[in-house]
Design a protein that fits this description.
By secondary structure, the protein is an all-alpha fold. The chain is built from twelve helices and no strands. The structure holds a DNA duplex (11 and 11 nucleotides). This is Endonuclease III.
DNA sequence: AACTCGGGGCA
DNA sequence: TGCCCAGAGTT
């Protein structure tokens, strides 16, 4: 039983570090979150598909004029790929995205009565919608709790020891268990913001990191310099 | 598990 | 000018 007690103490200590990290991130990045406001779930889906491997700026620049011309699944489903490609050319990967968006619109028309589905399983049937995009739609459009794990969330949470870094789905469940539901939205923004500004993929700026004293990966990056 | 799509941002 | 990137699909 002594072993069990000791084990519990170690787990508690680790959890304390995780909570400290999350608290510092919260203080550091408060007010930096940007709301995802689109008038319909379908528009959010289109914008989220467009944002893959692309700077948000590129998407924000075109969505207003794009949705002024086309808004509904019905309207997108009748587009020719070349028409949509022209509209979204500045977002990168545009041929795939155009094809997927049109196909998704058709599927919503044909199989979902023109309404975008509200379960992850059904959302992931839509071309161009993977687990991350499905979770973005669930949480932002329908208020259904779902932690969207993109590459930033995946990398940063793994480096900080908040997750195992096995794969995005595992990270999703680990963060879901670690962070209180009412803070998922904030935590998501902190991790992404931190990943963009400080904990970047190559040569992370550990000296500027507000949690570098608590981070299990800090030493390794400092030594690598 | 590796490859592909791709223009824009940034060193 | 070259390298990298807020994913998802295919093989």
């Amino acid at each position: 039983m002594k072993k069990t007690t000791q084990h519990n103490k170690i787990i508690t200590g680790l959890d304390k570090v995780k909570q400290d990290i999350l608290e510092i991130l919260e203080e550091t990045y408060q007010g930096t979150s940007t709301a995802l406001n689109f008038s319909t779930p379908f528009e959010l889906m289109v914008a989220t598909i467009l944002s893959a491997q692309t700077n948000d700026n590129q998407v924000n620049k075109i969505t207003e004029s794009l949705f002024k011309k086309y808004r509904t699944p019905q309207q997108f489903s009748t587009l020719q790929p070349e028409e949509l490609e022209q509209e979204i050319k500045t977002c990168g990967l545009y041929k795939n995205k155009a094809k997927n968006i049109i196909a998704a619109a058709k599927l919503i028309q044909d199989q979902f009565d023109g309404q975008i589905p509200q379960t992850r399983e059904e959302l992931m049937l839509l071309p161009g919608v993977g687990r991350k995009t499905a979770n973005v739609i669930l949480s932002n459009a329908f208020g259904i709790p779902a932690f969207a794990v993109d590459t930033h969330v995946f990398r940063v949470s793994a480096r900080l020891g908040l997750s195992s870094g096995t794969n995005p789905a595992v990270t999703e469940s680990e963060l879901t268990a670690l962070i209180p539901e009412e803070k998922w939205g904030d935590a998501h923004h902190w991790l992404i913001w931190h990943g963009r500004k400080i904990c970047i993929a190559r040569k992370p700026k550990c000296s500027l990191c507000p949690v570098n004293q608590l981070c299990p990966s800090n030493q390794e990056y400092e030594e690598a310099k």
